[in-house]
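Please, structure for the following, as tokens.
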Amino acid sequence: MTCIDLPNKTLEVVKLLGPFDLVITDILMPDCDGFELIGELRNELPDMRIMAISGGKFFGNKTFADCAHEAGADVALPKPFNYKELMTGLRKALNEDV
């Protein structure tokens, strides 16, 4: 597990230190748009599994989950979530039996 506390450097770090099985990203972060990050990850690393998390419910007239999936996330998990929901989301993101 690697924690990247500079969201605008995520793609660079993932490419440098990877491969990783999964990237988990928030959507609303300082200095970085999570939807753009997901799109960049998907373009540069098309096989990367991506889980998006957010406390925001709607972005415009679309739900967070809809926007995350459109950006390229495999799973969208709304906050707050509990342990069971996190584990289910991880299994889905990694294509494991749920």
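The chain is about 40% helix and 25% strand. The beta strands are 22-26, 28-29, 32-33, 49-54, 58-59, 62-63, 75-78.
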